[in-house]
Write a structure and sequence with these properties.
heterodimer; A: alpha/beta; Rossmann fold; 6-stranded mixed sheet; 4-stranded antiparallel sheet; globular; B: mainly alpha; 3% strand
Chain lengths: 286, 268
């Protein structure tokens, strides 16, 4: 299958030629395929945010290339601008970017910049609001007077409304209560199922990553340290800990049980898998 | 991007000039300016040039950074040079056409004026390049302390100034972030007619204002909950101390000033 995003030898250095020069990411090669849900994990400062901002051309690489649908996104100015609509990027704490008088207008900002017709914009706004579970009664309210969770949904809808082929979310659940987190994760899964888009999810939560991702990409000190299925990645708990990352809680419990002599299979990293492995054991005792 | 702007223009370092008390540096910059304006002829200008070059060398600030700082002021420098070139009388006339006259005296004066402005800028830049903005406001506050006697709110003014300085990087970072977020939604800040561009700033300014007010509010609450009540009886975490190097610096400053006064009297 052809990659939707292909990254070749990507390096980015901040503040070149000043005393503050710092290489954030170094020689990165990675491909993302259509329909994948990839969790990008890494410690703070591991370069994952810098990396993400290259995917839609917000940051230009110091060296290397990024191809979207086989086209170099930094080849021309037009290409860089077009890719903004193909690759939707939701920043961390996106609620701080809301600015319009009404929720409707704020969601319509992206599609309007795409110079779409009024009907098309209307359709997309309603569709995007549907994906994130915003009721149409809120459309005429000011986004600034809504709750934090709702604001975040509006901001996410604002990006989804551009119908990007690839949706990138940077810590979409940061700072929300457990109910809010669950809601956003569910919205993202729904969205992906119904549109078949590629989703890249930057997250700190290993449990979320284990539960929903098809593939994990682990950043460490500006390079990709691991890239594989959750099975493959979470079977290296010592390496993960060395990088300042956790393993999912279920994997940690399974490991602790193994150390106490309970025989469990290796690939356990979600609560469901743990339950499936433990329940038969109890029945066996009885 | 925005982050590359050297605002406050502080370059951290570990030289004697970096370590001097900010009060010393502020006073010496004034001394430097006075001395520079006492210069009249080749020798005194050369002397000031050597003094400035020496300070730059000791501070280990790269020449490139200084030249970068001079760049925005190039218009003023060139303008002053041209004015002096055409409007100085005396010496041999080399060129005369309509109202434009160039004489040897004009060339000399234009050259010296350009040198003076460049030295002036370099000297003051040296202050901001080697002193952190916070140290600078602290020093300024202490130097202006006597004004409290005539009810000038020195502490409040310096508090406002240091807070403003403290929040410049934060606001730049915030602006950068919001700009990126809006660009990710296809906003275009760099092309279009001037009216379009002004309109394009709205998605940037509204969130920025909202978050500035939120920040100001949070900061006020945080300060009050730590019992901030103004300058009365407030002590400092990093009290400023005059050390031996400061007295040495003052001595050096006095020698330079004395030398310049002498040269001024002899007109060299």
């Amino acid at each position: 299958m052809d990659a939707v995003i292909r990254v070749e030898n990507l390096t980015h250095t901040y503040s070149v030629g000043t005393p503050f020069e710092k290489t954030a990411i170094h020689n990165i090669n990675v491909n993302f395929y259509p329909g994948e849900l990839v969790a990008v994990i890494g410690h703070t400062g591991s370069g994952k945010s810098t990396f993400m901002q290259h995917m839609n051309g917000l940051l230009a690489p110091t060296s290397g290339h990024v191809y979207c649908d086989g086209e170099d996104i930094f080849a021309t100015k037009e290409a860089t601008r077009d890719v903004r609509f193909k690759v939707g990027l939701v920043f961390q704490y996106p609620e701080y970017q809301l600015f319009e008088e009404t929720v409707y207008k704020d969601i319509a900002f992206g599609p309007k910049n795409m110079k779409l017709s009024a009907d098309e914009i209307d359709e997309r706004v309603r569709e995007a609001a549907g994906f994130v579970g915003l009721s149409e009664e809120l459309f005429e309210r000011s986004p600034l007077e809504l709750s934090g969770g709702q604001k975040r949904r509006i901001a996410i809808a604002g990006v989804i409304a551009m119908r990007p082929k690839v949706l990138i979310l940077d810590e979409p659940t940061a700072g929300l209560d457990p109910g809010g987190c669950e809601g956003i994760i569910k919205n993202i899964l729904d969205y992906r199922e119904r549109t078949g888009s590629t989703v890249l999810l930057v997250t700190h939560s290993m449990d979320d990553a284990a539960r929903i991702a098809d593939r994990l990409v682990v950043f460490h000190e500006g390079s990709i340290a691991m890239d594989g299925t959750p099975d493959a990645v979470f079977s290296h708990p010592t390496e993960l800990t060395a990088m300042g990352l956790d393993v999912p809680q279920a994997a940690a419990i399974a490991q602790a049980l193994r150390e106490r002599g309970v025989s469990l299979p290796q690939s356990i990293y979600t609560l469901e898998q743990l339950k499936a492995a433990l329940v038969p054991l109890r029945k066996g005792e009885n | 991007m925005l982050k590359d702007i050297t605002l406050g223009q502080y370059f951290p370092g570990d030289t004697i000039i970096h370590k001097l008390d900010p009060r010393t540096k502020l006073i010496l910059v004034i001394v430097f300016i006075v001395a520079l304006f006492l210069a009249v002829d080749w020798i005194s200008y050369a002397f000031m040039f050597v003094v400035t070059a020496l300070c730059v060398k000791v501070s280990t600030i790269k020449l490139k950074s200084i030249l970068k700082g001079l760049k925005p002021l190039i218009f003023i420098i060139v303008f002053t040079g041209i004015l002096n070139l055409f409007y100085t009388q005396g010496g041999t006339v080399l060129f005369d056409w309509w109202i434009f006259t160039i004489s040897t005296a004009g060339i000399k004066r234009a050259f010296l004026m350009i040198v003076r402005i460049m030295l002036l800028i370099t000297g003051t830049f040296l202050l901001t390049y080697t002193t952190s903005p916070i140290a600078l406001t602290d020093g300024l506050e202490m130097l202006l302390n006597p004004l409290k006697k005539i009810k000038v709110p020195v502490h409040e003014m310096s508090m406002i100034m240091s807070m403003a300085l403290r929040f410049i990087p934060t606001l730049i970072e915030e602006t950068d972030k919001i700009m990126s977020a809006q660009k990710a939604r296809g906003a275009d800040f760099s092309t279009g007619k001037i009216t379009e561009r002004a309109k394009a700033l709205l998605p940037l300014l509204v969130p920025l204002f909202v978050s500035s007010f939120r920040r100001a509010d949070e900061l006020a609450v945080a300060m009050e909950s730590r019992c901030y009540h103004g300058g009365e009886g407030r002590t400092r975490m990093n009290a400023l101390h005059m050390a031996r190097r400061d007295y040495l610096a003052f001595l050096a400053g006095a020698i330079v000033l004395g030398g310049m006064i002498a040269m001024n009297i002899y007109g060299i």
